[in-house]
Design goal:
The chain is α/β, with parallel strands linked by helices. Helices cover 27% and strands 25% of the residues. The chain has eight helices and 18 strands. The protein is globular, with a radius of gyration of 21 Å.
Length: 342
């Protein structure tokens, strides 16, 4: 029996994308492609409704049958949970990515080697899927046994208990104990994979890459690392971002001299810092996600899913030719993050 875990983020304004419907469409896609009539189990985690739905397809005598079980185990998300677009602290009843990890770990214990896909259908950024748009501010207030509020500060590598969204630190030992981590990895089928369907649009990364691609000395393939490029069109924010990632300074943002090798290091570090890369390494399986500096949108199909906007074709070429990235097998424009990438 093959397992699938599909996560629908909250349909937060201003872009109220129907993530739960996307999950249902993904189920239909996999069922239609199941020519071998293998038994399939889909767990759909709907963050907005707080509901977990299990759809099981079996084929006794070659005839498809379906059973559906639904449990609302978590609080429904409403606009009352928000201050503007920011998710408020102290809302423990709302579904968290930790609950998703626990579901994967359960598969790893009870049915190891059967998880085909872990998918986050939600908004996103390079740091990961956005389930509710919560924040990791490294502080949290909780009531102790005497009913007194205690403020926790400087959590470091520990997850912020107010944070519901995935983070790159999730697989650190303080957040996922060794036995839990082993169960997480054990869940995956040899052909299993992850998919982060949302955006990875880091503004500065996109802008710097765009300016590189339009530099008169740039070549889409074969440019040596030693080539010195002079930029006169970088903004101060661009240069500050470069400086922070490279650990160096540039005296004048109006004339920046930098080698192509240094620029590649900048983009490599952006890749290594992304949630898609970290998830690939943690699971030991490929993760399909937006390449840094790209965004996703509905694909326009009758039963829509998502794709990366094709206007980023130059970005695709850059990542392919200089970092060896392949794109997803469904031709949706997502990068294939390989766990072996360093």
């Amino acid at each position: 029996m093959k397992h699938f875990v599909l996560v629908a983020g909250y349909e937060q304004p201003p872009k109220n994308l129907p993530f739960r419907a996307y999950c249902e469409n993904r189920v239909r896609q996999h069922v239609a492609a199941n020519k071998a009539k293998e038994d399939l189990v889909f767990q759909i985690f709907d963050v907005g409704s707080g509901e977990v739905v299990v759809r099981t397809f079996t084929y006794p005598g070659g005839t498809r049958t379906e059973s559906v079980a639904a449990v609302r185990s978590y609080d429904r998300v409403t606009r009352a949970h928000y201050d503007g677009n920011a998710f408020k602290d102290g809302q423990d009843g709302v579904m968290s990515v930790v609950d998703i990890y626990a579901a994967v770990q359960t598969i790893g214990v009870r049915a190891p080697g059967t998880l085909m896909e872990l998918s986050f259908l939600s908004h996103g950024f390079a740091g990961g899927p956005v389930l509710v748009n919560s924040f990791d501010d490294e502080q949290a207030e909780r009531l102790n046994s005497a009913g007194v509020k205690t403020l926790f500060l400087r959590l470091g590598n520990r997850r912020d208990p107010d944070d519901k969204d995935p983070r790159v630190k999730d697989f650190h030992e303080v957040n996922m104990r060794p036995a839990e981590f082993a169960a997480f990895r054990a869940a995956y089928h040899p052909d299993g994979y992850n998919w982060s369907w949302g955006c990875a649009f880091e503004y500065e990364v996109n802008e710097i890459l765009h300016k590189l691609e339009h530099h008169p000395d740039y070549r889409s393939a074969g440019l040596p690392d030693t080539k010195v490029l002079v930029f006169r069109n970088l903004t101060r924010a661009n240069v500050d971002n470069l400086s922070a990632m490279l650990g160096t300074t540039f005296p004048d943002h109006r004339k920046v001299e930098i080698t192509f090798g240094e620029l590649k290091l900048y983009f490599r570090r952006q890749i290594l810092a992304s949630y898609s890369h970290v998830l690939a390494v943690a699971s030991g399986r490929k993760t399909f996600g937006g390449l840094i500096g790209t965004y996703a949108e509905p694909d326009g199909a009758p039963r829509p899913l998502m794709r990366v906007n094709t206007r980023f074709s130059r970005h695709f070429t850059f990542y392919k030719n200089y970092f060896g990235f392949a794109l997803d097998p469904e031709r949706r424009g997502y990068g294939a993050y390989d766990p072996a990438f360093i």
